[in-house]
Amino acid sequence: MNPGNTSYPNTTVYYNPIAGRNMTTLCEPLATFRGATPFLRRVTSHFPIMVVFLPMLLVTILTYAIQLLLKPFGEAAFASQLLGGIALGPSLLSRNQELKELVFPPKAVMAINVIECVGLIFMFFTLSARIDKGIVKKSGKLAIVIGVGAFIIPLIVSILTTLFIRDGLELDDELRSTLPMVATLEATISFHVILANLTELKLLNSEIGRLALSSSLLSSLIGWFAPTFYIYASENALVGITRRTVFLMNVSVIVMVIIIVFVVRPIIFWMMRKTPEGKPLKQDHLVALNVIVLVVAFVGELTGQNSYLGPFILGITTPVTPPMGSLLADKIQYFVWAAFIPCFIINTGRRVDLYSIQFNHFLAVEMVILIAGTVKTFAIVIPCLYSKIPFMDALALGLLLNCRGIYDIQVFTRAKQRLQITDESFAIMVITAMFQSAIIIPLVKLVYDSSRKYVAYRKRTIQHCESHAELRILVCIPENDHVPTAINLLKASNPPQSHVGVYVMNLEEYIGRSMPVVIPHRLDKNPSSSKPAKIDPLLHAFFRYQQTNKAYVSVQCFTAVAPYASMHDDICSMAFQKATSLIIFPFLKTDPTLTKKVINNVLSMSPCSIGLLYDRSLAIDYRSFQCRRVCVLFIGGADDREALALGARMGRNPSIHLTVTRFVVTNPTMSDFIDEDRDQAMINDFRFVNLDSKNVEYVEEGVEEGFETLRIINAIANDFDLFLAGRRHEGCLHVLQGLGEWIEIEELGVVGDLLASDDFKSRASVLVIQQQAYAPYIE
Asked: Which domain of life, per UniProt (predicted)?
């Protein structure tokens, strides 16, 4: 350690062989942390931990103000965060020397650096712990081609480009020697950034989202070794770092990986075994896990890598299933982003000085960035088009994989600290990354619509399903309490000698995984663990249902793990792939708002008809309803025709007594004749087919306004076990006049809300049907 002259007291300058330059350290006596003073400048001198809140407060205010201004344009939070940091840095506010000394005294900078480091350590651990190792195994050929090609091809082209740029522009020697590293960094793809962007765009479990995650993970794993290879290949290696040093650094990484896999990982599994299902980790286990994260971070720094490598590897080896996933998501993530990340934003802004950038240098670096991004986009789009992915979807994928985020900025920062890139290159790369995010995110929202693939080009409804053809039904199960209800409805919908294909989707909230997954289950598989799983009762119940009706019923069960914001994608994808005619979604009034959000998304995007099942008996005494007496309330419209089609199917079951109650306007107007020809044709067909059926009854009721409709429904409230009704009744103005003003549950429509309301004194359950919204040109 060689002391040197500095502009601040209590500082020491020493030579760092890793960074290849002199480093300044600030030594703070313990005594200066005692004694409070009300004056800000004296607080600045004596309280580095306290004064760090001033720049944190300023950058938070700037970030949220900018985010508020950019919100109408659909910008990602990353762009506003960087703008806030840059605004506080030497590019704007900190150009004022007095303000700079007030906001960034050396002690505050020291504290900010420490907090930033700790925050990034836990951020990388948390994000890496979400990575599902099965992604690599399950990656298809397209994901592998994109993952490899999107890094290798831009890397080669952009490095070759730097050779021409160095000869064609007047550049200083430092920038000339570091341009290949700029090309290398710009060719990389960050899995963590893609994960964060897909989460923000709610595309995690879309087709493009899954492909983006798989390919970005493969590309990240390849790109992680690129800087090491660059050091080996470079003739002008960093000052003080020999190839032998690099070799020993990587050997130490291998040793650390072995210790994490064979020592730390078994400890984590032991913690999981000691944790009851559905419960968080014990407090002492949580503390131990945090200590382990900090220890491996220290070892990574000690071995010449960085403090983020150890936590990254530890996160990779950590199981993705709860309690680990839920622990990391609930107890670490929000605190890290609220307390630690602002310090990272502050430091990034401090390192960006727009006034120091020369035009020639800006032009050279931007050309490398532009060429790397363009080649990367072509390397992604071309394989997608070859695989017959629509051009707009391929373009959206290419744009997504060009996004930048906090992880990329950290990689740029590390390269700057190691003198692998210049200060100017760093500033240019950060500004470009900000503009990439600001432009790409709105473009993806404009270009890609995940609901397009669910547009129906065939009629997938019960009404248009042949009477003796297999009826395919997708049953969504948010909670196990809904299983008996769903099975009873399936039994009622399955007349003798009629084939039914049932696809059961157990819905679980996405917690602690890198990407949503759909897990298939075998019904006849005995549980191999003494610790029962949450899904076991569901599997056993549907296995018994299939065995009871083995000749005519087939059942397949799946678990969809997804965030509520995009869970509808899994449901609609399954319905589309299995060509189902009906989706059954049980729910209760007490279901959380997020569940209702899923229902609304399915209602708007479903590729087939959907039935919302409200089990009143389950809501009253937790007993599933027994379906013996069924009533179809027919007012008119496509949804009511679909409800009648399902009711007619139930009427073929001799154990079901079906009543169809049709409401007819006594004084019709022109608006009441909308769709009436189709309604009447279906009613006529129904009455003709069931002319001699003893268990089917048809009743017509004349009404003039909504009050009479309400009176008739209340009169038959206790006569049935199940009511079937349509969700939408456009044009039926008189029949429902005044009833829509009191609606509580919009998902059920006017009639469904009336039947499910607490004022409706009945124990009958309700199935509200919405017919498939197919393209208008389909006949």
From this structure: Eukaryota
Cβ proximity of 425 and 182 under 8 Å: yes
Whole-angstrom CA distances from 307 to 125, 412, 649 are 11, 15, 65
Provide the 3-class DSSP secondary structure of residue 347.
Answer: helix
Containing 610, the helix (H) or strand (E) segment is strand 609-614
* The overall pTM is greater than 0.90: no
- Closest listed residue to residue 471, CA positions, set 609, 344, 592: 609
With CA atoms as reference, report the closest residue to 514 among 220, 80, 288, 279. 220
β partners of residue 238: none
The region, left, alpha or beta by phi > 0 then psi within -120 to 50, assigned to residue 215 is alpha
CA distance 701 to 706: 13
If one counts every other C-beta atom within 10 angstroms of the C-beta of residue 90, the result is 20
Q: What is the 3-state secondary structure (H, E, C) of 295-313?
A: HHHHHHHHCCCCCCHHHHH
Structure token digits, residue 378: 């072509």
- Per residue in 456-469, pLDDT tens? 556 788 888 877 77
pLDDT, tens digit, 9 for 90 and up, residues 529-571 = 445 567 888 888 898 888 888 778 899 999 888 888 888 888 9
> Cis omega (within 30 of 0) on the bond before 654?
no
Question: How many Cα atoms within 13 Å fall on the side-chain side of residue 317?
Answer: 22
pLDDT of res. 631: 94
Direct distance between the N- and C-terminal alpha carbons of the chain, in angstroms, rounded to an integer = 84
Q: Which pairs from 246-254 meet CB under 8 Å and 24+ separation?
A: 248/304, 249/303, 249/304, 249/305, 252/303, 252/304, 252/305, 253/300, 253/303, 253/305, 253/309
